[in-house]
Batch of 3 targets.
Target 1
Amino acid sequence: MTTAINGLSLGGIYAMIALGYTMVYGIAKMLNFAHGDVIMIGGYMIYVTMATGNPLLAIAVAVLSCVILGVTIEKVAYKPLRGASPLAVLITAIGISYLLQSLAQIIFGSAAKMVTVYELGSIQFLGATVQLSALVTLGVTVVVMAALTLFVKFTRVGRAMIAVSEDRGAAQLMGINVNGIITLTFAIGSALAALAGLFYLLKAPNVSSTMGAMPGIKAFTAAVIGGIGSIPGAMLGGILLGIVESVSYKFAAIAPYTDAIEFSILIIILLVRPNGFLGKKRREKV
């Protein structure tokens, strides 16, 4: 039971990050590989603000900082590259990632910083000891995914997002502010990254300049497995990876190969179902 809940909560963190990846790709058609480092910035904002002793203030500052950072990155680095080759955008994203990591090292140093956000403790559930932070992570992830799905499907802005995702040119002809929609997408993704950073700190209470690197890669893997561009797919892929990782760490013989197992699953799924579990097959117009 403990392994299952830990796996679901870890999967919730991956899903939260993967939602940012999948929304940006689905609407802006680009892979923002600096997304993992936005998580790291959020972690450092929590570390700095926790000096006040107010966890709610720390969370609010982290979310706001990440939103501002995400929007700034989109305006300064990605917007001038609209229409550029995917390779140019990819190289820019990698450059932004290294820039953020380097700035974090300059400002905070290379040593990891201990961060205690809040001690939630544990409870007994079905004979197992379960960390409350794991239940909170899982619950918030489910609520966020449901809210995001409803937002996209039933609000005017959400339908505009779908229109931009399907055909950016046609959406612009219909009067939709494409640049505004893409900026909003980056803002939402960055806010989710800040929440993911919070839950990651609840699970492993230390922050460093490379904090978001591996979670970011695994979340991208989760997005691809679930079907990049699909919000439920991001959730499904994240939960799958979280459970696989939690079960793998349970067995000492395979624990050192956990990352290899997860990426092997990605390769197998891409061979069998290239669009992921819930991804849509796009028809190329000629």
Target 2
Amino acid sequence: MKKFYVIILLVLVLSGTGFSQVTVAPVTVHLSDAERNGYIVVRNNSNITPWEVSIDMKFGYPVSDSSGKTVMYFPEKESDTDPSAVKWINFYPRKFVLQPLEEQTVRIAAKPKNVKEGEYWGRPVIISKAVNAEDTTGKGNINAGMSVEFRTVIALNYRRGSVKTGISFDNLTGKFEENKFVLFAKVKREGNAAYIGNLLVNITNEKGSIVKETKQEISVYYELNKRIEIETGKLPAGKYNISVQLNTDREETGGKILKGNTEEKKITITVN
């Protein structure tokens, strides 16, 4: 009897290393006219299962809605003004199988043609799925299985000529509810390159004592309505001074973060 396979495909879109057995490093690749080649290392962390890996490339960047929710946006069609590097970035190899605990270095080569001065973006998408072992018993059973496909999305930029970045920071507002401060700010990138850096929040009470300090990474490609939630637990009634700072002092592999200005805003929120 002929053997049939019923395959259920589950697609998970993940950012960073995600939950797949396959991990990718680094998660940001910087290229330029002076350094047109880069690499990523793709590793199979399973000690049992081989994984099949393929690499795609899309143009995308983070956007937000009026509530401050941020998602990765991939235009269905690129416009002539989009700073996309998709068409002239190549990967070697682009498809391969990783045996258990094996890793593969993937070379990235940029071949720009007739590209103007500025920064160009792309999102390498590393697609991985487990390789199902074949049934060699010769039995004519119908096998039902699940093929889980993971997509790890990382960032890539290419810089040509003079590039600069900056940030403008307006309309910082906030409130205290459910034992946390909820802050809102509109931030807008300046210059011709993305603003990649840190967002720091410092909260002090009326006596100047520190209540909470936090630090998170932020990437502004155009503009964002940024929602910031800071858990503090129950606080005594009173006034609390909050400072929110944006800077480009982030440490990253290769040390290629483009330096820009530092912006800081302060507000006072009363907790009843």
Target 3
Amino acid sequence: MAPEKEYIPVTVDKSHIITIGERLYSESIEFIREIVNNAYDADASLVEVTVSEDSIEIRDNGSGMDREGLRQYFSIGSQMKLHTSKSPVYHRDRIGQFGIGKFASLSACERFEVLTKKGDFVGRVVFDKQEWEKAGDVWSLPLEIMPADFRKDSGTTVMLTGLTRRFELVDIEARIIEGTPLKAPNFRVRLNSHTLTPRSLTGHKMPFLEGTEFGPVHGEIVILPQTMATTEELGIEVKVKQVTVRRELFGMETWGKAMARVRGEVNADFLPVTSDRTGFVKDSAEYRACTTVMEKQVEEVRKLLVRLTAKKEGRVVSRALNDALHRIYKALYRNPELSPFGALPIADEDAKGIGGAGLLSEKKEGEPHAGEVVGSTKEGPEKKKRKKRPKVKRLTPNAVIKKMRFGQYGVSCVVDGFGEEGPEVFTEETTIYINRDHPLYQRESTKADTHILNLARLITQEIALMKDSKNPRQAFERQSRLLKDAFVEKAGQET
């Protein structure tokens, strides 16, 4: 004889529903995002959000709801949107899933009212927090049927009154911009009569599209200009159905300050989200597949960021080195006896192609112009000598090289990295190497003026030693004279 079965009813205290909503939506402002997304799911083309001191109204021109629609709207965990995942008019991928946001709103207000129109049906449901809790085990909400002309057009209005929390407009705007599909066609949101627009990032953009067994992963990563780098809202926005769920770093947390320059978004509609839509199910195969794709993309971003940073630093170094050599050239012209290569330095007319280090700004009486060879009796172009390769280790691709000619001779200056423990400056034959990794160089290169002065100091030091390496004191005096004439303006002369 089979044992007799009994059934135990499962009940949930209504106050717990509100508590669950509060916990799932740790920031009560999230309910605004969910109501706007409900309007999107209902094929609304315009959502008007009006915020005042004691109320919030969210009005849309979507398809509205009838009796059955209202029952689904207030049903927790309804599967309706899973079974009809596309909206009928614009064929949108519906965003809503769990239907708990409206209960979370009761953590911020005393009264939640829904007025909706679909065809000739107009209904109003009032969700009063205190009355609902007093009703004990009765779960029904009062539905009031209104005249068909009570509301002119189809759509839904949600009104929250008796606010118990204060909401700042800037916070609401930020949440709507990030948490709703503002980039979707035929969809617009206005906040207190101001149309909200998606964020637009400026910088080097890297679009991508990768396939996985669960679906495509696509988006765009942006490397911001250095001046726009910020530690606020770090990471890449991960979106599901055009809505940001959260920001992820995908390994960038080890980059230091560089990660402040990286922003962007990735869309992966197949990712499973948590019930509060603030995170992902990270132990899922879908999340691992998305992470694999994004780690690959972020590594490409890192490589490009290194190249862009080096390129920018190279331009800064090039300008500073060019300025320093220009000043040193003019100082040597004024003090030809300090030149280790002859009585008179002559600028190379080809110097412009390597940064113009030997060019003079204008020809002055009694001075040779760039490209002139003083006292030369040779006719035709001078035969070029084969350049000798430096004896130091191979230069990096980020090396900055400039040359300054003195008659038939000249000096080459190379700024490159030789390690923090390497010498600050050293010379091989007629090539001066400046170590950009040296701590002193790093400190002085933070400002343009000190950068130029430091380069000139190092170059004049080596030129002075070329003149007489056996007498350091005399070399120091020569260097002082060159630096003085390079940076101190004299009457009637340019620096």
